[in-house]
């Protein structure tokens, strides 16, 4: 099994599912649009660790994706059982970085990674917001030894 690029960070399982036949394209493997949807769902679960959707709605805050980079490592076929684990990679004044690792449940092989930067966002004024003290406190639990909040 390949070593994880974020092995020092605390990982959290953020998705578990199966690749269905309708996720696959004419070449027989999972189409890229479904990787994006899968990673998007994992992102919602990960960000909820910093403040759930209800709290964000009540305070008219949210998250705006600034960057996403997907690396496809190995094909995913219909019937493959999939798990996403997520680790925080950095914390800034108003943004966080994290990495999703998509693995096959049966063989443990890394199938894809997705690196993200997302910005804490004021939904009313459409501008970035500093992370709250509570958010910064919660990020400390998930940071690796090389990343530190401001």
Summarize the structure.
The chain is α+β, with helices and mostly antiparallel strands. It has helices at residues 32-48, 53-59, 133-140, and strands spanning 11-18, 61-72, 81-91, 95-104, 110-122, 127-128.
Instruction: Tell me how many strands there are.
Output: 6
> Which stretches of 5+ consecutive residues score pLDDT under 50?
1-7, 146-150
End-to-end CA span: 35 Å
| Overall number of structural domains | 1
Percentage of β-strand residues: 35-45%
Largest sheet: 6 strands, antiparallel
Report Rg.
16 Å
- What spatial form do the alpha-carbon principal axes imply? elongated
Question: pLDDT average, as an integer?
Answer: 90
CATH class type: Alpha Beta
CATH superfamily grouping: Hotdog Thioesterase
What does this structure look like?
This protein is α+β, with helices and mostly antiparallel strands. The protein has one domain (11-135): Thiol Ester Dehydrase, Chain A, CATH 3.10.129. 21% of the residues lie in helices and 37% in strands. Strands 1, 2, 3, 4, 5 and 6 form a 6-stranded antiparallel sheet that branches. A hairpin with a 5-residue loop joins strand 4 and strand 5 (110-122). The radius of gyration is 16 Å and the shape is elongated.
Task: Write out key terms for the chains shown.
alpha+beta, Thiol Ester Dehydrase, Chain A, 150 residues, 6-stranded antiparallel beta sheet, disordered N terminus
Record the SSE blueprint.
Blueprint: E1 11-18, H1 32-48, H2 53-59, E2 61-72, E3 81-91, E4 95-104, E5 110-122, E6 127-128, H3 133-140
Antiparallel strand pairs: 1-3, 2-5, 3-4, 4-5, 5-6
